[in-house]
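Render this sequence as a predicted structure.
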Amino acid sequence: FAGTLSSKALHNMAFSGMLKSPIRFFDVTPIGVLINRFSKDTLFCDERLSYSFCLFSTMLTEFLASMVVLCISNYYFILILIPLLLLMSVLLVFYLKTSVEVRRIEAMLRSPVLSHVSGTLSGMSTIRAAKQVDVFREQHY
């Protein structure tokens, strides 16, 4: 339920921001980039956010319970735990930066395909008038 609400809120905010954009934004930004952004973000909120939050809360609870039991049973474990948590936080920062870059590159690679398909669909009357249907059919299949 929370995933659906967050997806709806994200879509409404993105759509509102897009409507307030100047015309130059639409001249410079290909339609495939816009479609990609809306579909990818909405898909993420609909399918993955709820599951990820549930999984995160379960793992965090298990981790904290394990650390409490270990620290109570063996006091020296605290000396090992602190450097491990610091190492984990450094690795987390590195992973997040890398993950954002990989997603950005993936979106850049997908956008030209969506732009090409969208441009082809919007120009179908011109393609038919120029009798180039077979050429575009070969490109898409």
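Summary. The chain has a mean pLDDT of 81. The CA atoms of residues 20 and 126 lie 31 Å apart.
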